[in-house]
Amino acid sequence: MNTSTAPVEVAGDWTTEAVEALYALPFNDLIYRAASVHRQHFDPNRVQLSTLLSVKTGGCSEDCGYCAQSARYDTGLGRERLLDVAEVVETARAAKTGGATRFCMGAAWRGPKDRDLDAVVEMVREVKALGLETCVTLGMLRPGQAERLKAAGLDYYNHNLDTGSGFYGEVITTHRHADRLDTLAQVRAAGIHVCCGGIIGMGESRRVRAQLIAELASLDPPPESVPINMLVKIPGTPLAAGEDLDPLEFVRTVACARITMPTSHVRLSAGRRELGEAVQALCFLAGANSIFYGDRLLTTGNPEADADRRLFDKLGLKPEPVQGRRCAGTD
Ligand code: SAM
Ligand code: DTB
Ligand code: SF4
């Protein structure tokens, strides 16, 4: 008997209160609902694989309290140059050989200068030519920049809301939540798919987590790709000393993302090493259907590809082919 009286899927705008009510469901009811929604829109045994590369590491002007790459904190990372296009293309080719279908290039910038964008445009063009989906995360965009990226063949732009708008100023003071929305609007207007999610475990309340999910789900349309990151504590950053979040709260967050954004790919992102296999398995059950694949994220470690292949074998999961979604959708 299904003891949950609420409907299995609710369309339309999500309020913080409605998402809080999902979080408050008994765990089994929440996971059951999320798994049911997942099966309506996707093959539940397919997972999309994205590989990340930091193409410009460190020395960022912004003060994001979680970030290893902010120049304001002594995290032991120096400022590196922008990688050469050839170096990036080699790494992308290896990622494709390893089984990734999307290649995501990250830069530690507040936003790209037009000169920097020339090189990134070339990277996008060449990575796309390998037959990979392309994604970049470069910070805030200025008018015209999204169009240049689109013309080069960019499929996705990653720009996270990171946390609920009510908590944003506690974590970042050098730019505003509204600036993030402005860049997301430019990305949409240029016809690029949106990759937008957030981080949990930064000392925020459950209400803030519910606000983040509600704000993501209320983007119109919701992001095609939703990375859910567990904070990776970086020594030297203001958030390094906070308390650990219960991993089951991470699973609940994945489930809430799945229910509120039924046709989006929900990506189990930073923090997988710390979550372990059993919690990751619960996340896949709760509707996560994408991961970062490869032994590095941007500056920190990720499970080895071999370990992920063994986990997939244990769970009977298969990598998703490019554009492998089962039902018609927006991405
Ligand atoms: N500078 C660009 C920006 O801020 O959008 C792109 C790079 S930034 C590192 C990309 C995302 O990585 C952030 O929005 C955040 O969600 C995630 N991230 C960064 N550091 C993290 C950490 N220590 N733990 C979890 N997620 C993190
Ligand atoms: C996202 O949401 N998570 C990725 C990607 N988008 C760019 C980055 C995670 C970074 C984790 C910390 C690090 O490696 O520096
Ligand atoms: Fe890190 Fe991006 Fe913030 Fe810069 S803007 S400190 S790279 S999260």
- Residue-averaged pLDDT, rounded? 94
The assigned structural class equals alpha/beta
Question: Unreliable segments (pLDDT under 50, ≥5 consecutive)?
Answer: 1-11, 324-331
Name the overall outline: globular
What is the overall number of helices? 11
Mind summarizing the main beta sheet? 10 strands, parallel
* Strand residues, percent: 5-15%
**What is the CA-CA span between the terminal residues?**
35 Å
Q: Using the CA coordinates, give the radius of gyration.
A: 19 Å
Can you give the helix content as a percent range? 25-40%
Number of E strands: 10
The SSE order reads HHEHEHEHEHHEEHEHEHEHE
Bound chemical compounds: S-adenosylmethionine, 6-(5-methyl-2-OXO-imidazolidin-4-yl)-hexanoic acid, iron/sulfur cluster
Task: Explain what this protein looks like in three dimensions.
The chain has helices spanning 16-23, 27-41, 85-98, 114-129, 145-152, 168-171, 177-189, 206-217, 247-260, 272-285, 305-315, and strands at 46-56, 102-107, 133-137, 156-158, 193-195, 198-200, 225-230, 265-268, 290-292, 318-319. The longest helix is centred in the middle third of the chain and has 16 residues, at 114-129. The protein is 39% helix and 14% strand. The protein is globular and about 50 Å long. α8 links the parallel β6 and β7. Strands 1, 2, 3, 4, 5, 6, 7, 8, 9 and 10 form a ten-stranded parallel sheet that branches. The protein has 331 residues and is an alpha/beta fold. The protein binds S-adenosylmethionine, 6-(5-methyl-2-OXO-imidazolidin-4-yl)-hexanoic acid and iron/sulfur cluster. S-adenosylmethionine (SAM) binds at residues 66-67, 106, 108-109, 137, 139, 159-160, 162, 199, 229, 231-232, 234, 270, 298.
